[in-house]
Amino acid sequence: MTPFPRVSGLFLIVVLAAALTVSACSRGGGGDQAPEPGDRAVARVLDETVWASDVKREAVAQGLVGEGEPLDVTSDLFRRVLDEVIDQKLLAREAERRRLDASPLAQRRLEATRERILGDMLVESVVNGAISDEAVQTLYNEQLRLAKTSEEIRVRLILSRTKAEADAVIGILGQGASFEAVAMERSVDEATRFSGGDLGYSTLDVMPQAYAGALRDRPAGSTVGPFQTEGGWAVLRVEDRRKESPPTLEQARPQIVRYLTYEGVRQLLEQLRGKAKVDVLLSGESAGQDQEPASAQPLAPAASSPTSVPAPVPAPAA
């Protein structure tokens, strides 16, 4: 398991999905003045200019491109998103014509969106600007120093439905048959049988408990089993054992940046809450009660997601 900071995706870090979608379809008020240096007008809708940056922000909000990725104005993707921005502006203007924006509920929703955008811009200018290459390198070096590289094991599997079938597999292997050939012929694990039962390299901490317990002290070349698992009776062969290699700086950089961003947002919110009078008007809670900001509490990752990551580890000691 990689010993580097891994955090869930909930931050105040410019998660522009809802905010920028609304921003892209609202009236900008900037007239024909380019909102960004070098920006390019790409359409006009009811006398309002649509800029290339509007389309790019919408594409980022939808997750179609990354914040730092270019979006070619001649591409099919740009044209498709441009059409969506035009549709958004037409819908927004029609809503204004019908005075849907005048209701108290609409005003509160628009104000909430404005506050979200301003908060994101504050994070961009204060927190993101403080994340330097030096800070990333420092945390990477500290994590390398603290990391205890674990061992990876490459294993092959033959899975049988019954213990009698698994015992028969052991007998065939004992006569010198190839493990790979027996796996292809007899294993009921459809995911691996055609690759000779190859499970690849993994660490014990991510294996099912039955596998980890059976393999813990077995050297390369060992045949292990049969033992019962959730899917049947398993026979394993240890192909290789090696030390897990830590990620390179570039591989670890996105996770480190997310961690530093999380820490920056948490510290910023602590400072703001320390200066402000906040009364929580809920039954059973004291007014002005000190609470950790909700945005500093990342959601627990879904257990079923292969890319889920735990909450941030504490900052390393100096």
TrEMBL record:
- InterPro entries recorded for this chain? PPIase_dom_sf, PPIase_PpiC, PPIase_PpiC_CS, PrsA_foldase, Trigger_fact/SurA_dom_sf
Region Disordered: start-end pairs? 283-318
Q: Which PROSITE patterns match?
A: PPIC_PPIASE_1, PPIC_PPIASE_2, PROKAR_LIPOPROTEIN
- This protein's superkingdom? Bacteria
For this protein, the Enzyme Commission number is 5.2.1.8
Q: Mark out the compositionally biased spans (Low complexity).
A: 293-308
So what does this thing catalyse? [protein]-peptidylproline (omega=180) = [protein]-peptidylproline (omega=0)
Q: Name one Pfam family in it.
A: Rotamase_2
Enzyme class name:
isomerase
Q: Which residues form the PpiC domain?
A: 150-240
The UniProt record lists the keyword Mitochondrion: no
Ranges of compositional bias, category Pro residues:
309-318
Q: Which residues form the signal peptide?
A: 1-24
> Which Gene Ontology terms cover its molecular function?
isomerase activity
Keywords, alphabetical: Isomerase, Rotamase, Signal
Q: Which family does it belong to?
A: Belongs to the PpiC/parvulin rotamase family.
Q: What is the name of this protein?
A: Parvulin-like PPIase
